[in-house]
């Protein structure tokens, strides 16, 4: 989702904005149960085919509703200031040495905290998105989150499987689970962030792991 939107005709841009504003208004007034593409097209006064060609399905429309917020979040961890973004930063408990490159462990913790804040601001939309498509959690921005975390974890815990650890951390931050922790476990967002700091420390604080031996091939 990061980057510039593809160019489009002025009338197509107007229709897109009209559809998004209509969907936002329907969500605010009626909740998500009436947010079908057919109904959005009817209320927006555009052709049903226009909506389907532009967004594909309900999940595509919901992704469009979070696009601006998602782009700002992605920019913050890809190019923003440390410890969330790259570059150099002041010393801290997780990043010793003023002016040194930010410890990847510090960036993992900062990313998880920022992700929780980002999702909290879009909670209702993200819950609808997961209900709309069984694969929604793993589409959209998920591959970028995974690649970002796996890159940092490979530096923070050499020898471990960074791809598995990235998936494990992202699964722990799933909006459905975080909503459960806030409503059923009565944890505040700050308390959940503190638990994630402990989780990141426990993942990254261990000694470097030896490289896995290649699996022996059975004799032919």
From TrEMBL:
Coiled-coil annotated spans: none
Keyword entries, A-Z: DNA-binding
The answer, when asked if DNA-binding is one of the entry's keywords, is: yes
Q: InterPro entries, from UniProt?
A: Homeodomain-like_sf, HTH-type_TetR-like_transc_reg, HTH_TetR
Give the transmembrane region(s).
none
Q: Which residue range or ranges hold the HTH tetR-type domain?
A: 13-73
Give the highest taxon in the source lineage: Bacteria
Instruction: Give me the stretches of Low complexity compositional bias.
Output: 89-100
This chain belongs to the protein called TetR/AcrR family transcriptional regulator
């Amino acid at each position: 989702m990061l980057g510039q939107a593809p160019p489009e005709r002025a009338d197509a841009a107007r229709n897109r904005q009209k559809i998004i504003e209509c969907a936002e208004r329907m969500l605010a007034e009626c909740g998500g149960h009436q947010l079908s593409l057919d109904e959005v097209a009817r209320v927006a006064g555009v052709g049903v085919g226009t909506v389907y060609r532009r967004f594909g399905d309900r999940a595509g429309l919901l992704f469009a509703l979070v696009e601006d917020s998602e782009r700002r979040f992605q920019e913050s961890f890809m190019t923003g200031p440390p410890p969330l973004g790259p570059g150099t930063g002041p010393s801290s408990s997780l990043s010793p040495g003023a002016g040194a490159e930010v410890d990847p462990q510090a960036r993992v913790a900062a990313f998880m905290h920022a992700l929780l804040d980002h999702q909290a601001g879009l909670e209702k939309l993200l819950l609808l998105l997961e209900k709309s498509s069984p694969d929604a959690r793993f589409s959209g921005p998920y591959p970028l989150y995974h690649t970002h975390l796996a890159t940092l974890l490979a530096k923070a815990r050499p020898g471990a499987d960074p791809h598995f650890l990235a998936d494990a951390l992202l699964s722990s931050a799933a909006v459905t689970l975080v909503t459960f922790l806030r409503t059923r476990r009565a944890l505040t967002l700050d308390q959940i962030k503190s638990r994630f700091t402990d989780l990141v420390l426990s993942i990254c604080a261990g000694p470097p792991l030896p490289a896995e031996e290649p699996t022996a091939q059975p004799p032919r």
